[in-house]
Each structure stands twice: as C-alpha cells, then as structure tokens.
Design brief:
The complex is a heterodimer of chains A (204) and B (374).
Chain A (H helix, E strand, L loop, with lengths): L3 H19 L24 E5 L16 H5 L5 E5 L4 E2 L5 E2 L2 E7 L8 H5 L5 E3 L15 E2 L1 H4 E3 H7 L1 H36 L10
Parallel strand pairs in A: 1-8
Antiparallel strand pairs in A: 1-6, 2-5, 3-4, 5-7
Chain B lengths: L3 H5 L4 E5 L11 E7 L2 E8 L7 H7 L6 H5 L6 H16 L5 H30 L4 H21 L8 E2 L2 E2 L5 H25 L3 H7 L7 H7 L4 H4 L7 H4 L20 H25 L20 E9 L2 E9 L5 E7 L1 H5 L3 H5 L4 H11 L3 H5 L1
Antiparallel strand pairs in B: 1-2, 2-3, 4-5, 6-7, 7-8
Helix pairs in contact in B: 4-5, 5-6, 5-12, 5-15, 6-7, 7-12, 12-15
Classes of the chains: A alpha+beta (204), B alpha+beta (374).
Chain lengths: 204, 374
C-alpha cells in the first residue's frame, strides 16, 4: 500500500518521542552550567606545567627548558627562553629552568605531542575547557605563572597516570641517590688510598 | 532534454550555491547554470578551506604531521591516522604488534560506523527531512565519540595511531563498553531502516537519481561505497589485505544501479558488515604490546626511498605518498583524498536534473571539505 512506509516511519518517530520523556536512558541532555560534565581521565585540552610544590610553583617547576616540546609542537605555539643560572631539581641536580615559557592557546591544537615527547614529565594536558578571554591576543597567551599547576592537581584530574609518573620519578630519584652515594664512596676510598691525610670529603 | 529557452527565448540562469549554503556540506560552492529548472552546467568551486597541509607536512617532522591528518577528513581521524602510519611504517620498515593491529581494525571500523551514520543522517537532511534522521544518527555517533574521547582524549581529533603501533592501550572496561555498543548497533540500524528505507518519498527522491555507470566510475577513479554501488567489487580491505583484514570474515556489499538509493543502501550494508568485523575483533583481541620496540617517537629518520600507504577509508581509497631524503622531514608528502576524487563526477551526475536533486546527489557522494581542500 502506498504510504505504509511513511506510516511505519512515523510509528518509530512516535515511539522515540514518547520514550524521550519517560525513559531515563533516553534523556541525554545535560543542564550544562548547572551540571558539570564528567570528563574521562584521558580527556585533553591545553597543556599545563607540573610543579612539585604549590607554595613555590616557580621554584619547583619540573621543566628544565630543554625545548624539545617547542621543536616538536606542530603549530609552533610554545615559546621558551632558557634561564641564565641553574637551580637544583627534585634530584638535587643543578638544572636550567624556563625564564620564559609561553603557550598561545589560540594556536594550540591540543594534540598532546608535547606531553609525549617530554622526557621530564613536566608538561601534561589539562581538563579546563571553559577558557574565555576578553582580549584575543594577550588574553589567550598563557605565561609560565598561568601555566604552572601543582602535582596534586595532576593527581586530581588523572589519578592513574599521575601515580605511574610519581612512581617512575621516585625510582629515578632513588637510583640517582644510590649512584651518588656509590660515587662518593668510591671517591672516598680512592682518596684515602692515595692521600690518606686529607680524607674523602669532596662530594660530587 | 527539451531546450526550454529555444521555445520561449528565455535566458540561462546562473546560480551560485554556496559557499555558505547548508546543503553543500561545508564551504563548497557550486556554480549552477539552469535552463528553467534543469541543470545544464555545474562547476564545483572549492579551496575555501585550503590550509597547505602537504607543504606544512614537508617542513615538519614525520610525527608532527600526525595530528594534522586528523583534520583532513575530520569525521574519520582514526582511519586517516592509520593510513599515514601505514605509509611511514613502510618507509621505516616497522612491524606492528598483533594487539595493535587488532586495535587499528577496531578503531577503523568504529570510524566507519561514525562516518556512515553521519552520512545517512545528512543525506536525509539534504532530502528535506529536517532533522529527525540526522538526530537519530548523531545519537549513535555520540556514543562512539564518547568511547574515542575516553580512550584518546578527544572526540574527533583522536591522534591515536603512532608509527609502529597505537598510543593508548584500552583498559578492559573500555573494551567491554565498546563491545556492548557494537552489539546494540544493529538495533539502531533496524530502527533506522524501518523508519526510512521503505519510505515512499525517499524512494521517489533517490531511485534512479544520479546513476553512475561502472565504466564511468572506474574512468573517474571513484573508490569506496560510490564505486561499489555501481557493482564493481573493489574493496582495498580484500584487494590490498592490509593490516589484519585477511583474518576477518566479512562480505563486500555491492550495488547494481549506482544511483543515489544504491549509494545509501551501500552505507547501511557496510555498517552491518563493520559490526561483524568488530564483534570478531573483540572476540579475538590478543594480549601483548601495542608498540614496535624499534619505533622511536622523536628523531625518526627513515632511509632514502618512497612509500605509498593506502587503506579503504569510509569514503574510499585514502592514500599517503611519501618520499624520504633521509632527513627528519618528508621530502614530498602527498595525500590521495577520496572526497576530492569522488567529487569529480558531480557535474555528469547532475546534468539534466534539478537543484533539489543536485543537493541529494552531492550528499550521497559523501564529501568532507577538510579533505577536499586540505
């Protein structure tokens, strides 16, 4: 019968129409500003810089200004200037730090390559998606103070990845301490063997 | 075709459709010359979305081009990633572990579901059934995009494949959710077909509209569902046997008339076959590593040479042609975009039809302007 296909289709529409008022599984609309979306841990938006300590973010930044992310960034939205002086990192080793670290979020395409190439776990992807600025040039250009977020925040948004990173860094730190201790001991024995009078006081 | 203007001494009318017309699927313009209501000439104008993809890729490292491939056909970023990874893996001699091969098949077939459900939704929008079919299709697509988001971090710009494997190993919960979604997908297809496939208005508007001959399609280099709708059995998953596709049991649906209705049915049938592939992949997914241990993320320098990686994308043959001079950047980088090549027959299909039919024919060819313009 001509028109039976249309009627069958309308029956499907009617079923969905009724279901969308009564079946909770079909009520998919979220009242956004009142109800915040549940983001998956892997969600990525813009990068942030991990700091060890929330009270001294600039002093405990993990970034050592190696500029690998700056080179690999596909849209070239990262700008880094190395510091002139060095400061000790979490392992006690003297490292450079970024005197300037800017990310232009108007250019960033959230690809996560900077995170993947970073050998120091210093840059990670953030969950904050509601960023708006009144100035489209300087407002979206984030400097290192705005990018710095503590490790505790990283634990909040990606618990699994943060725990894995912390475990790896702790292992590295332990290995470095072990190595330093062994080196000091070796030096000490070498020093006592050659010059017993001065002793092995020199630490690396 | 009766020449109306000869009898009535009327003029031909030139209409510029687009580039901001909603039915042109993006920033695409058709300069249509009309004789009364009939199209006598159609000139596609594109390039509004050109962003120099190939030249940018030649000036950055191999890895840095990967996120840009997401943005070619932005509905199918997973397939685009895979096609590019295939080319680079050929160039660098990398082998992909079994688990990663299965994951790639899973992602590519999920992408096919996303693309085809979008396409049939938009096709009905073009037919004038604003907005119910599109919304139903988007409802299903949204579930797959949520899966992509929880795995790769982004709904559409997944950036998931890497040279020699995949980036993230899906946890068991993800696989269970994806498997449940795939098992439920045929129910959506049944509902969709009950609603629309037998609809008399839809049949009248699509059957016999814009028929494409097999010889015509082959001469124009058409690939993908548009080619198979004409009855040519050519599917790179069977012909090229890339990845682990030879391990999967699936049929290649073929059309007979090559008209808009066949092109629509081809998408529905392919989705049903994709569901079969996915179910098999979830059953057989092995444990193991997901990256080739030889693969390096940074400083990738393949030997001097060239490689062409291609796969059966949802829209047709998607290929990446790379020439390496031994440095960290490709010396030449070329994309074979199925959208652009399938578009070349548009004028021949539309001649003698009305504007309303041209819109439907364009919708059934399935183009994404991000890939046409690059």
């Amino acid at each position: 019968m001509l028109g039976s296909g249309i009627l069958k289709g309308l029956a499907v529409t009617a079923k969905n129409f009724v279901g969308s008022y009564h079946n909770p599984a079909r009520m998919v609309t979220q009242e956004y500003p009142d109800v915040q979306p549940q983001l998956p841990a892997n969600y990525r938006n813009f990068p942030f810089l991990v700091t060890e300590n929330a009270t001294d973010p600039m002093g405990t930044m993990r970034c050592v200004a190696c500029q690998i992310c700056e080179k690999e960034c596909p849209p070239q939205c990262i700008y880094i200037e190395k510091s002139k002086d060095k400061k000790p990192d979490a392992n006690g080793k003297l490292q450079l730090y970024p005197a300037v670290f800017d990310i232009d979020t108007a250019v960033c395409m959230s690809c996560q390559l900077c995170v993947e190439v970073c050998p120091f776990d210093a840059i990670k992807m953030d969950h904050v998606f509601a960023i708006a600025a009144t100035n489209r040039f300087s407002g979206l250009l984030l400097n290192r103070e705005e990018l710095a977020k503590p490790n505790t925040y990283f634990h909040e948004i990606r618990p699994d990845e943060a725990a894995e990173v912390d475990g790896r860094l702790a292992a590295e730190r332990a290995a470095a301490e072990e190595k330093a201790k062994a080196a000091a001991a070796a030096k000490a024995t070498a020093a006592t063997a050659t010059k017993p009078a001065t002793g092995g006081a020199a630490a690396p | 075709m009766r020449a109306v203007h000869d009898e009535f001494h009327g003029d031909l009318l030139e209409v510029s459709m687009g580039p901001q017309h909603p039915s042109t699927h993006g920033v695409f313009r058709m300069v249509v010359t009309l004789d009364g209501e009939q199209i006598v000439k159609l000139k596609p104008v594109f390039g509004y979305l050109h962003r120099n993809h190939e030249k940018i890729a030649e000036s950055t490292s191999y890895l840095s081009s990967m996120p840009y491939t997401d943005r070619l056909d932005y509905l199918c970023s997973m397939s685009n990633n895979w096609a590019y990874a295939l080319a680079v893996e050929k160039l660098g001699g990398l082998t992909v572990p079994d688990r990663a091969q299965y994951l790639r098949v899973i992602m590519a077939e999920l992408t096919r579901l996303v693309n085809h459900s979008c396409l049939v939704g938009f096709l009905f929008n073009d037919l004038g059934t604003s907005f119910t079919p599109l919304l139903y299709a988007f409802r299903e697509r949204e579930k797959i995009l949520d899966l992509f988001e929880s795995l790769s971090g982004s709904r559409m710009m997944c950036n998931y494949q890497r040279f020699g494997g995949c980036r993230v190993d899906p946890p068991p919960a993800w696989l269970a959710a994806a498997s449940a979604l795939v098992d439920n997908f045929p129910r959506f297809l049944d509902e969709y077909e009950t609603m629309l496939t037998g609809n008399e208005i839809m049949l009248a508007r699509t059957q016999g509209i814009g028929p494409m001959g097999a010889a015509q399609a082959i001469n124009a280099g058409i690939t993908g569902p548009c080619l198979r709708a004409t009855g040519v059995d050519y599917d790179l998953r069977k012909v090229d046997a890339y990845g682990f596709y030879p391990r999967f049991n699936f049929r290649v649906p073929l059309g007979a008339h090559g008209d808009t209705y066949d092109r629509y049915m081809m998408r529905i049938l392919e989705m049903r076959e994709s569901v079969k592939i996915l179910q098999q992949a979830f059953r057989e997914l092995p444990a193991g590593p997901i990256m080739d241990p030889k693969a390096k993320l940074r400083g990738f320098r393949p030997k001097v040479g060239e490689a062409y990686g291609r796969l059966e994308g949802p829209k047709g043959e998607l290929g990446f042609y790379l020439i390496s001079d031994g440095s960290t950047n490709p010396w030449r980088y070329r994309v074979r975009p199925p959208s652009l090549i399938n578009l070349t027959l548009l004028e021949e299909l539309c001649l003698g039809r009305t504007i309303a039919d041209a819109v439907v024919i364009l919708g059934s060819i399935d183009i994404v302007l991000g890939e046409v313009d690059r």
